[in-house]
Amino acid sequence: MPVNIPDTLPAAEVLKNENIFVMHQSRAISQDIRPLRIGILNLMPLKETTETHLIRMLSNTPLQVEIVLLYTKTHTPKNTSLEHLESFYQSFDEIAYKNLDGLIITGAPIEHLPFEDVIYWNELTSILEWADKHVTSTLHICWGAQAALYYQYGIQKYQLPQKLFGIFKHTVCNKKEPLVHGFDDEFLAPHSRHTYTRREDILAQPELELISESEQAGVYIVTSKNKKHVYVTGHSEYDPLTLRDEYIRDKQKGLDIAMPVNYFPENNPDAMPINRWKSHGNLLFSNWLNYYVYQETPFDII
């Protein structure tokens, strides 16, 4: 089944060219079916790129999915046009009286800041409080996962000596967990972050379960035992060139950035990267939609 998005959203043309079944709203409203309503709180600077990444992942399911794009009112993005936001996004205030089947909270390049110093921290915590009552399950990604773990459980993030940057091998801790159904014993996933979450802090919380980790990248997937929250510290939604673009951007800024590990063939930055994490990413998102959202959500939501 398709992803239901606005007719003129730029991501639609990109995904159509990838043979991903995208259904525009004008057609979807003619079908007698209730799609899953999935909100995306997009905290990333390049919002159109992130939209495409996430909608691509959400398309790999037999369920029809309606996308609700959200932004924070307390921060004006510098890299996304006001026209794009006004055309396709809603603020939290506009949907606060509604319920969502699922919610995705993205990462944000603000790891250097204490959580309380983030300009939209109060707005984000209000959304987290609201989500506990109005969302069946929330998927938190990278900084979004760290922020939620801190707010909900007091779990701190810690600075890494250098950026964790590249493609890393992971294992599954609990193979009976539906979220990881179909995962290989070892699988790859991208990471791009300057901070980490301590394994012992997760294990010390009786309401949390460590689902997947990596010898190099550390804690990867954590869930709440009531299935209301999934915390993913990496970026399984990244497309093949995202890490390359980040590497080039930082080099051009003169930053001391190491080449992403296990990424460029023969460590040649001029070589085309090979996507070796796509199947894992598709499984992660489709399992979340099926087992944590679809199987748990009521048929009627307001």
Structural features:
single chain; 302 residues; alpha/beta; Rossmann fold; 2 domains; twelve-stranded mixed β-sheet; globular
Structure description:
The protein has ten helices and twelve strands. It is of the alpha/beta class and 302 residues long. It folds into two domains: 3-159 and 169-239 and 278-294, Rossmann fold (3-Layer(aba) Sandwich); 242-274, no CATH class. Strands 1, 2, 3, 4, 5, 6, 7, 8, 9, 10, 11 and 12 form a twelve-stranded mixed β-sheet that branches. Helix 1 packs across helix 3.
Query: Could you say how many structural domains there are in total?
Result: 2
Radius of gyration: 18 Å
**Low-pLDDT stretches:** none
CATH superfamily of the largest domain: Class I glutamine amidotransferase (GATase) domain
The run of helices and strands is EHEHEHEHEHEHEHEEHEEEHH
| Separation of the first and last Cα atoms | 23 Å
Helix fraction, binned, reads 25-40%
Give me the CATH fold name of the largest domain: Rossmann fold
Helix tally equals 10
Structural class: alpha/beta
Identify the overall geometry.
globular
User: Total number of β-strand segments?
Assistant: 12
- CATH architecture classification name of the largest domain: 3-Layer(aba) Sandwich
Q: Which whole number gives the mean pLDDT?
A: 90
Main sheet characteristics = 12 strands, mixed
Task: Tell me the strand percentage band.
Answer: 25-35%
What's the CATH C level of the largest domain? Alpha Beta
